Amino acid sequence: SAVDLNPSGFTWSLGRATSGSQQIGYGYGSATGGNQHALLWSGMASSVVDLNPSGFTQSFGERISGSQQVGNGSGPATGNNTHALLWSGAASSIVDLNPSGFTSSGALGISGSQQVGNGSGSATGNNDHALLWSGTASSAVDLNPSGFTMSVASGISGGQQVGYGSGSASENNTHALLWSGTASSAVDLGSLLSPDYSTWSVAEGIDANGNI
């Protein structure tokens, strides 16, 4: 049943996620000047929408929920730093989610009106911190828990977010984490595992039933 989604003018493409009848990913070729561009499909190669915004050299589509898509991109518009991006089906719909005090960021998950990812900058001591957005840069919530130097949020469903982090609280090992919208709500999932898995664990996604 495979459908080849690689569009005309593209040498290479990758599908990253699907929601309903649409797919998100990225690709490059003569059509993009050899730069990676975020791409949105509706089930066939000819349906492709190039999401790369004006002022961006490259972009990557990562996840999709309903009519919105998230990923990241960089170019003159961002001082060539990577910024988390939110689209609503067209390049012109772009919302730059990079918060004040952050040099770089990326969005890795979306559910309903909220998005998750990570970012770093002066606001974080230049360490990666897990972030939660509600559609705008100013809505960013820093999810990095006490006792953790770094963290990343990679999945979201409803009011819960998952990812991973490390710091003194995890004996500097990488532990899977669960949040409910705030840094203080963090649950160290790595600490719930047997000693066989105490060194490294990550949470990639969470479903509507809370399965991680």
Explain the overall architecture.
By secondary structure, this protein is an all-beta fold. The protein is 0% helix and 42% strand. The protein contains no helices and 16 strands. A four-stranded antiparallel β-sheet has the order 1-2-3-4, with no helix packed on it. It has a four-stranded antiparallel β-sheet with strand order 5-6-7-8, with no helix packed on it. Strands 9-10-11-12 form a four-stranded antiparallel β-sheet, with no helix packed on it. Strand 3 (37-41) and strand 4 form a beta hairpin.
Outline the secondary-structure elements.
Layout: E1 12-19, E2 22-28, E3 37-41, E4 49-50, E5 58-65, E6 68-74, E7 83-87, E8 95-96, E9 104-111, E10 114-120, E11 129-133, E12 141-142, E13 150-157, E14 160-166, E15 175-179, E16 187-188
